[in-house]
Design a protein that fits this description.
By secondary structure, this protein is mainly beta. Helix content is about 0%, strand content about 35%.
């Protein structure tokens, strides 16, 4: 089978730098086999002898590990030997060069997320798509050889019809303008990676909700007004500055204020309650209907918004503004 052909522009996870994160190199010490439920850690019996050096007696479920007192979220593990044996390397984000971590790769375990593994450093060479599961030898991912030198995580989000991640569900890894054919209602969401905006109606309209990596067992957890989600967008990774001008009147008229940071209360800071137009010059922003980041949310990308309906609002009342800083990355 020929590996998936891609253009090399796989979106990266905004939650992690473009380098190696949450990693641990080990020799032959066995990795403790744990339930893959992703829940919070609980205490382990004191007589357990399988813990690697440096770790305490805490059960770290699923992709959770502990190193030097810190909890790490491990999503993919590369092994030098077949059948998950030998030296291995644990990773939770993009890594541009893994050659110093292991000399060859003959098996892989994906605990969560969707990944692209590359034959060569800096995301080049043969590319292999990897989803959650076990790959006991390189033939299982249609590998031409045992060489893996870099990897990237693909942003992924899962919508469930029932609460607590039950019932019919739909997995998505990019923008979707109309999801009504995939599920009838949405009562829980799991974000494996990336930063997203979910919309109440098709074509990115209606109520808007920003979602970062985590679990949302019911629609109240994302401040949903109902159980209706019909479209979604991934927010691109961003590493720059933030700058936006807000205007009291439509078409950039009236009183103007410039922002470069969060503002929990526009009335207190600028004596403004109505924002009728704005110009986003740098960065990604969220407008909130009420002070202290409450009420309806409106996601803004760089560009000009001549009137409040351009960002999906029925009126010009805005109480607070914040930057989408979850997107920031620190490239190595």
């Amino acid at each position: 089978m020929e590996p998936a052909k891609m253009d090399g522009t796989i979106p990266t996870d905004p939650g992690y730098p473009d380098g190696c994160q949450s990693d641990r190199e080990t020799g032959m010490a066995p990795l403790v086999t744990l339930p893959e439920d992703g829940e919070a850690p609980t205490k382990r019996m004191k007589d357990d002898q399988n813990l690697p050096p440096g770790e305490d007696s805490t059960v770290l479920h699923g992709p959770w590990r502990q190193k030097e007192g810190r909890l790490l979220f491990v999503q993919i593990i590369f092994y030098e030997g077949r059948n998950f044996e030998g030296r291995h390397y644990e990773c939770s984000g993009d890594c541009a060069d893994m050659h110093s971590r292991f000399s060859r790769c003959n098996s892989i375990r994906v605990d969560s997320g969707c990944w692209v593994a590359y034959e060569k450093p800096k995301y080049s060479g043969y590319q292999y798509m990897l989803t959650r599961g076990k790959y006991p030898d390189h033939h299982r991912w249609s590998g031409f050889n045992d060489c893996i030198r870099s990897c990237r995580i693909i942003p992924a989000i899962i919508f469930y019809e029932g609460r607590n991640f039950e019932g019919r569900h739909y997995e998505c890894s990019g923008d979707c303008a109309d999801m009504h054919s995939h599920f009838s209602r949405c009562n829980s969401i799991r974000v494996d990676s990336g930063c997203w905006v979910a919309y109440e109606k098709p074509k990115y309209s209606g109520y808007q909700y920003m979602l970062t990596r985590g679990k949302y067992p019911d629609h109240h957890r994302w401040s949903g007004f109902n159980d209706c989600i019909r479209s979604c967008r991934i927010i691109p990774a961003y590493n720059g500055n933030y700058r936006m001008k807000i205007f009291e009147r439509s078409d950039f008229g009236g009183k103007m204020m410039e922002l470069s940071d969060d503002c929990p209360n526009l009335q207190d800071r600028f004596h403004l309650r109505d924002i009728s137009s704005c110009n986003v010059m740098e960065g990604y922003w969220i407008l909130h209907e009420h002070p202290n980041y409450r009420g309806r949310q409106y996601f803004l990308r760089p560009g000009e918004y001549n009137k409040h309906s351009d960002w999906g609002s029925m009126n010009s009342t805005i109480g607070s503004v914040r930057r989408v800083t979850e997107l920031k990355q620190t490239n190595q």
